[in-house]
Automatic annotation (TrEMBL):
Transmembrane segments: none annotated. SMART domains: DeoRC (SM01134), HTH_DEOR (SM00420). Pfam families: DeoRC, HTH_DeoR. Residues 3-59 form the HTH deoR-type domain. Keywords: Transcription, Transcription regulation. The lineage of its organism: Bacteria, Bacillati, Bacillota, Bacilli, Lactobacillales. This is DeoR/GlpR transcriptional regulator. PROSITE patterns: HTH_DEOR_2.
Length: 268
């Protein structure tokens, strides 16, 4: 992992948790403690909202507050799962962002990686999301107006569920909806295990001008409990470079699909 990638990870974890420790980071990133200390020193000098403390670093706005991670136990595991593939996809998705757009992001760990890159982008945007950690990362960029969907937050969840039947996304002209899914197949399209997510993602697909799926290659040819959209309802599918050739060609016959290492299409 490059130094810049470690620094991005440390900063995002500090924002997410409020405080992170040298020993923990060294173990997770598989580098030495002196390397982590050096990374933290650089970050504390670079960002005013990070505060170097003995044994770690804190995010100032979270000091003396309950850690956000306590509300979203298990989210770190999702972030680590196939993270290299998700980062590839996020880097590709940036190519499809246009100045002044209003975009909608789901609460997936792939969109969290995407949000981490958006937080450094010098473009004026409005971003709507139902992801708690996604919103926390995005609000660091003064060029981005962040709107979080209100609703119910369940135990062990990073997602805000709009259970009041007042879908805020219907109040905006959504240029692009970026989403992930638990599985995608030719016959059944994009699917999820959680029925509440299925309902909301379905509405978001219908209410957006363009829909862009961010799906890592481990999720292809898999079906979850319920489908929220079919293949022909998605404008573009972005995946990583590790997808096998046969699977890519199969999907390429049914949907506009691009790998992270492919050139940007002339139209989007």
């Amino acid at each position: 992992m490059l130094a810049t990638e470690r620094e991005d990870f440390i900063r995002n974890q500090a924002i997410l948790k409020g405080v992170v420790y040298v020993n923990q980071l060294a173990e997770e990133l598989k580098v030495s403690r002196p390397t982590i200390r050096s990374d933290i020193d650089k970050l504390a000098k670079k960002y005013d909202d990070l505060h170097r403390v003995h044994g770690g670093v804190t995010y100032k706005e979270k000091e003396n507050q309950a850690s956000l991670s306590e509300m979203i136990l298990g989210y770190n595991e999702r972030i680590f799962s196939n993270r290299d593939r998700k980062k590839e996809i996020a880097e590709k998705a940036i190519d499809y962002i246009v100045e002044g757009e209003t975009i909608l992001l789901d609460s997936s760990s792939t969109c969290f990686e995407f949000a981490s890159l958006l937080s450094k982008l010098d473009k004026r945007l409005t971003v709507i999301t139902n992801g708690l950690s996604t919103a926390a990362v995005l609000k660091q960029n003064p060029s981005i107006s962040v709107i979080i969907i209100g609703g119910l937050v369940k135990l062990n969840s990073n997602t805000v569920y709009d259970e009041f039947d007042i879908n805020i996304s219907t109040s905006f002209n959504i240029d692009k909806y970026f989403f992930s899914a638990s599985g995608v197949s030719i016959d059944n399209g994009f699917s999820e295990f959680n029925f509440m997510e299925v309902k909301h993602k379905r509405l978001n697909v219908l209410n957006s001008k363009q829909t862009i799926a961010l799906i890592d290659s481990t999720k292809f040819l898999k079906d979850s409990s319920s489908t929220f959209c079919k293949m022909d309802e998605v404008n573009l599918l972005i995946t990583d470079s590790k997808i096998d050739y046969e699977t890519f060609e199969t999907f390429n016959k049914r949907i506009s699909i691009v790998r992270s290492n492919d050139p940007v299409p002339t139209t989007n």
